[in-house]
Design goal:
By secondary structure, this protein is of the alpha/beta class. The chain has 2 domains: 2-179, 3-Layer(aba) Sandwich (Rossmann fold), CATH 3.40.50; 187-394, 3-Layer(aba) Sandwich (Rossmann fold), CATH 3.40.50. The protein contains 13 helices and 19 strands. It has helices at 16-25, 44-51, 68-75, 86-94, 100-107, 121-125, 127-138, 164-180, 212-223, 252-262, 306-313, 330-340, 382-394, and strands at residues 2-7, 29-34, 78-84, 113-117, 142-143, 147-150, 156-160, 187-192, 197-198, 204-205, 227-232, 244-248, 268-271, 278-280, 300-302, 319-326, 345-350, 362-369, 374-381. Strand 16 (319-326), helix 12 and strand 17 (345-350) form a beta-alpha-beta unit. The protein binds cytidine-5'-triphosphate. Cytidine-5'-triphosphate (CTP) binds at residues 191, 252, 271-273, 275, 277, 303, 305-307, 322-325, 337. Cytidine-5'-triphosphate binds at residues 191, 252, 271-273, 275, 277, 303, 305-307, 322-325, 337.
């Protein structure tokens, strides 16, 4: 893989030459780009020696061409910013391009970017930094770390750049398919979030699904080169990727209509939405009034099972992946769903596992294949779990 290592002005920059060395050892081609401040912590000679190429650190001096950021972007499969200071994170979040690295970062749109933040704990927890990170994540930028521990300023807490070995490992496990664009030319359908089933003009039956897992899957598929049709129920999440096409729906029936219309032209579908199995048989067009002490009965009728419906129209060569959120007899129930709904894989998570399931930023899953395969993914961020799922089902 061709990797550009971006280095900014933090003390952790002293680890960057080691990062470059490990990447080269892992078989990658590496070029370095720095800010001016980075060169206060690590020398140009060191970086040029370990990478074996010329450093990109000045917009106008290094090369006769002032469009080096574009040729570098064309060259690179992946841009890794390590260390990433609060400053570079803020610049990218605000669209500022006033030096070689920030210019390259804006030009790198549509290709994978990984950041390894490093800063003082107080800076890390500042709302501005956290807000910027949230923004960058919603654009699909990956983050590894920071780690907790002793910091250069003498304090201790979150803010240390993760070790170079961990960055190299993250690239191998989570970013391989993105950098290689393994799904280029494919079209995928993803369902995400909850569904809302209306009771009257102001009330609904819903669930706690946040949509995070489905959005992370859409991101992972798009990063790997696929065009993604993301059909989502109501969620506060935003996503921005040139290859993700989002359709917002509210009810299970609307999701069913969108999914069944889209699936026939897709290579595969991952259905991660928490679809309501039932809906009120009637929806009042006004706000229902209280009905007194005797209570109120709602009659519920069954919604279409979207996953099972896609399983029925699945053609040879098409993939279909479902989720199973279970509380008891997890394995047995998930395997039953895999066969009943004609799936290629089922991603099982258990509500009994801490950190797994609705609303959390993490998940812990087991991917079961129709061929009898089983792949356990330990507690990881939903982004990392999404990459594991995508690489398992497409390998
Ligand atoms: N699903 C769906 N349409 C539905 C219900 C579920 O597409 N009406 C999909 C979900 O997106 C998920 C999978 O089916 O991928 C599993 O959903 P789950 O509720 O666990 O399974 P059910 O078949 O509804 O079984 P049960 O509720 O009995 O566990």
């Amino acid at each position: 893989m061709k990797i550009i290592v971006g280095i900014t002005g933090g003390i952790a920059a002293y680890k960057s030459p080691e990062l470059v060395r490990l990447m080269k050892k892992a078989g990658h081609e590496v070029r370095c780009a720095t800010t001016e401040h980075a060169l206060q912590f690590v020398t140009r000679a060191t970086l040029e020696t370990v990478s074996g190429t010329q450093l990109y650190h000045n917009l106008f001096v290094d090369n006769s061409s002032a469009t080096e950021h574009i040729s570098l972007k064309d060259w690179g499969d992946l841009l890794v910013v390590a260390p990433a200071t609060a400053n570079i994170i803020g610049k990218v979040a605000s669209g500022i391009a006033d030096d070689p690295l920030s210019t390259l970062l804006l030009a790198f749109s549509g290709k994978p970017v990984l950041m390894a933040p490093a800063m003082n704990s107080l800076m890390w927890s500042h709302p501005a930094v956290q807000h910027n990170i949230k923004t960058l994540k919603s654009w699909g930028i990956h983050f590894v770390g920071p780690a907790e521990g002793e910091l250069a300023c003498g304090t201790s807490g979150p803010g240390r750049m993760v070790e170079p070995e961990e960055i190299v490992k993250y690239i191998a496990t989570s970013l391989h398919s993105s950098a290689q664009q393994t799904l280029s030319g494919q079209r995928w359908l993803v369902t995400a979030g909850p569904t809302y089933e209306r009771i009257d003009s102001v009330r609904f039956i819903g669930n706690y699904s946040s949509g995070k897992m489905g959005f992370a899957l859409a991101q992972a598929l798009a990063d790997a080169g696929a065009e993604v049709e993301l059909v989502t129920g109501p969620t506060a999440l935003s996503i921005s990727h040139p290859r993700i096409h989002r359709t917002d729906i509210e009810s299970a029936r609307e999701m069913y209509t969108a999914a069944t219309a889209t699936y026939p032209t897709c290579h595969g579908a991952i259905l991660s939405a928490a679809v309501a199995d039932y809906r009120p048989s009637e929806c009042a067009d006004h706000k229902l009034k209280k009905q007194g002490d005797e209570g109120m009965n709602l009659t519920l009728i069954q919604n279409p099972d979207i996953l099972a419906s896609l399983g029925k129209i699945k053609k040879t060569g098409q993939l279909l992946i479902g989720f199973a959120l279970e509380t008891d007899n997890e394995l047995q129930n998930a395997q039953g769903k895999l066969q009943r709904k004609n799936l290629d894989y089922i991603v099982m998570n258990s509500l009994r596992d801490t950190g797994a399931g609705f609303g959390t930023d993490t998940n812990k899953v087991t991917i079961l294949g129709a061929d009898g395969s089983r792949h356990d993914v330990g507690l990881r961020s939903k982004q990392e779990v999404a990459f594991e799922i995508v690489s398992t089902i497409t390998s």
